[in-house]
Amino acid sequence: MEPSLLLRPGRIGSLELKHRILMGAMHLEIEGRRDKLPQLIAFYRERVRGGAALIVTGNVAVLPEGGGHGMFCLAEPDHRAQLAELAEAIRAEGGLLALQLAHRGRYATSAETGMTPWAPSPIASRLTKETPAEMTASDIAKLKEAFIDGAAFAASAGFAAIEIMGSEGYLLNEFVSPLTNRRADEYGQGHAGRMKLCLEIVEGIRQRVGTEYPVIYRMSGDDCMEGSTTREETLTFARELERSGVDALNVGIGWHESAIPTVGAIVPPGAFGPVAGAVRAAVSVPVIGANRIHTPEVAEELLVRGDLDFVAPARPWLADSAFARKIIEADREALNQCVSCNQACLDHTLGRPPKPVGCLVNPRTGREAEDVPAADKRLSVAVVGGGVAGMQAAKTAAERGHQVVLFEAADRLGGQFLLASRIPGKETFRETIRYFRVALQRLGVEVRLNSAPDEKELAAFDRVVMATGVRPYVPEALEGADLPLVCTYAELLSGARPFGRNIVVIGGGGIGSDVAHYLAEKIRLRPEVETFFAERGQDAQRPAESRITLVSRSEKVAKGVGPTSRWVLLGELKRRDVRVMKGYRCSAITAEGVWVENGEDKQFVPADQVVLCTGQRSRIAPDDEFGDKLPEASWVGGAIDAAELNAARAIRQAYEAAIEL
């Protein structure tokens, strides 16, 4: 059989690539720190071994005011030295590394750089709440030379290619957009003027490094900003970039200020493929795409459809450092799929303060410089609890050479993660459970379902890891909590309780907000049903009318949900007409509904179903009577901290506990 398009060799200018799976740029929040250089090298080395045909670095600032926290900047001599060491290490590993040249423009902040940010025009950013300085003619000349010099440095330092960052609302993208470029000089006044700087930079780079050195331009395929660059202007820009000498176009989507989600789990896989496809139809150079391309099936579909020539996902390489190798080896069931949660990657880099990047489903991300030590002595290990923490502990312990038995009280693995997979946008959580299940089977871990061992049974093992997780908390003092119309979020998500028509969700944290979203999606008419009838000239029958009310004690609904996901979740609740009552506590439940209070304001909310999302408690805790009988046990996840469900923390703790066995 012919190899899939994804696995066929390809070219970007003079660069010959073994296949079409690249690793896109991502900021790791450790760049620029010499003490972190060994970890940075280890991170990229592991992805080279994982089969990446080409790896693109995270943003490297060409000038200091366009950088930020934890970034390389080419104005720093030691940063240049570190980058040269990085390039040499990746070449020695047999990999190809491209340097991404960037200037963050008005997305840079004076708090991080100590300098006033630059922009084409002095228009404040909703993201930073800061007004940038309008660039002078001298500033523009300085910027142009900085990009050209950066390309020359990359070529001399041994980088296989460069990528010019002209997307995601950064400075070069700001020059192209009429929203941020209102200049009256030659670099404004119409689309030709707005393109001028970007084209001059490409032409200047070509003059400096010659025609053979590979140049990729990351352009914005759609800013997802009302009033920004039009589709026709975007395609014209793509053609002009090709004429100026770029070897490939990497098509980015959206700005950080966009109201449309572009990378969240709510975005359908491959949704932006047609945007890149339009660019590909307009040019003859290869086109690269990334957004929401997390599986080989989606990647292959976009190549077959003609939308792309290469795929360059980023976050999937955090979830599985062997992303390409497993695809090449047709070992799809071993692939640890990115679930697009953003919790340990984008939420870390965009947090205040920012933190180094990790991954919810892969606790080794960010720790590649640390070896997983083989066990000095093979021990018998009992892991109690088959949620993601228990499965991670069992997997790591078995990888180290221990003999592991995993006990799970339910009839299936997954725990709270399995419940969460019912939430819209979190369906891929089942892929994580599948990944663990396959890994445990291959490692020879004995899994005992419907099994809750007692202390006598556990005493027969050399070591015990308690990963028993949490159970919903029902406040004893809440009047009416035991009425028939009341259920917990676990009962609802497991399918043990049918829906009501007038539903009140008590608790506006992450779980309560997710449950309200789940209910709102389940009671609406599914789009495919509506399409089915519309294509046949009929109107689909609407579901019976329902009402969902979310009662939140906090004024901040979905508190605790990461910044890159919270705004999307709140937008979905609003779009689905979920009534949100902020700052109200539930004082009592009756057979007809709930009483809620906010200071002197007391209201009755009619309901035929009340869902309690009022917190969690550990199923078994170290200070329980049972826990006291396990003095040598390691406790992880919700078993030691049930305050808020946090799968990333639980998986990390399980990994660390297994390393220490």
Automatic annotation (TrEMBL):
<keyword id="KW-0411">Iron-sulfur</keyword>
<feature type="domain" description="FAD/NAD(P)-binding">
    <location>
        <begin position="380"/>
        <end position="620"/>
    </location>
</feature>
<dbReference type="InterPro" id="IPR013785">
    <property type="entry name" value="Aldolase_TIM"/>
</dbReference>
<dbReference type="Pfam" id="PF00724">
    <property type="entry name" value="Oxidored_FMN"/>
</dbReference>
<dbReference type="Pfam" id="PF07992">
    <property type="entry name" value="Pyr_redox_2"/>
</dbReference>
<feature type="domain" description="NADH:flavin oxidoreductase/NADH oxidase N-terminal">
    <location>
        <begin position="7"/>
        <end position="328"/>
    </location>
</feature>
<keyword id="KW-0560">Oxidoreductase</keyword>
<dbReference type="GO" id="GO:0046872">
    <property type="term" value="F:metal ion binding"/>
</dbReference>
<dbReference type="GO" id="GO:0016491">
    <property type="term" value="F:oxidoreductase activity"/>
</dbReference>
<dbReference type="InterPro" id="IPR023753">
    <property type="entry name" value="FAD/NAD-binding_dom"/>
</dbReference>
<dbReference type="InterPro" id="IPR001155">
    <property type="entry name" value="OxRdtase_FMN_N"/>
</dbReference>
<protein>
    <submittedName>
        <fullName>FAD-dependent oxidoreductase</fullName>
    </submittedName>
</protein>
<keyword id="KW-0408">Iron</keyword>
<dbReference type="InterPro" id="IPR036188">
    <property type="entry name" value="FAD/NAD-bd_sf"/>
</dbReference>
<dbReference type="InterPro" id="IPR051793">
    <property type="entry name" value="NADH:flavin_oxidoreductase"/>
</dbReference>
<keyword id="KW-0288">FMN</keyword>
<keyword id="KW-0285">Flavoprotein</keyword>
<dbReference type="GO" id="GO:0010181">
    <property type="term" value="F:FMN binding"/>
</dbReference>
<dbReference type="GO" id="GO:0051536">
    <property type="term" value="F:iron-sulfur cluster binding"/>
</dbReference>
<comment type="similarity">
    <text>In the N-terminal section; belongs to the NADH:flavin oxidoreductase/NADH oxidase family.</text>
</comment>
<keyword id="KW-0479">Metal-binding</keyword>
